[in-house]
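Sequence only, no structure available. Ideas?
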Amino acid sequence: MDSLDPASPLTPAVAVPPPPRIWKFWGTTLWGLFVFAAMFVGQLAVVAWFVLRQDGPIDVASATQVLSGGLTISLSVITGLPAVVAALWLAIRLSRTPFADYLALRGTTWTNLVIGVGALVILVLGWDLLSRATGRDATPGFMIDVLKSARADGALWLLVIAFCVAAPITEELFARGFLYRGWSESFLGPVGAILLSSAVWTALHLQYDWYFFGEVFSIGLLLGYLRYRFQSTWLTIILHGLNNFAAVVQTYLLAGPS
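Reply:
I predicted one. Tokens follow.
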């Protein structure tokens, strides 16, 4: 009869899996550095491949020339995506939280999309009007140079994929997905997480000057708020892609004929 006693030592123990966890401030920060390093290595591999395969001596000048090419930049942005996804998978795997749940990879509604597009259009138009009022170019010179280089190499289609698909997925999974999730559940709270993740995302765009830094940061704040408000990183990925596509079209028109 002892075997029927729930307290009997013969009763098999039921293994209770450890509860999932969310990396808080320091965990998110350290893993964020790891993810950034993975992205850097993934992108650098393409640059190194182009430098090593070219004729002539390998020096700073040749590396700089390769790095500024539209084809090189496009491929490096694309190869950064799997590197970031792999690093995020490792960090989230160790947290024992489902990947999609951790990064808020859930669907959204058409209403939310319309709200996001409308807010983004108003924000970008405001910056364009400000640039015209202050006599500045509406598009960074960096973008025009990259587009012309990609067009000359016959890689304009690759540039569109890199800037409008790969870059939005990579950056949103990193900033609005991973960084926001961890920092928002730390002492920073949602507001602090939006501010800090937007600052980090802005720092990824070192090719721009201070003016476009301001525009990128403001877009980051909007995307961060939409991530908080609608709890969907897919929404911010789509909006980010649409914004980049509009920027590519605008740059194409400004670059003129080939």
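The chain has a mean pLDDT of 88.
Hope that gets you unstuck.
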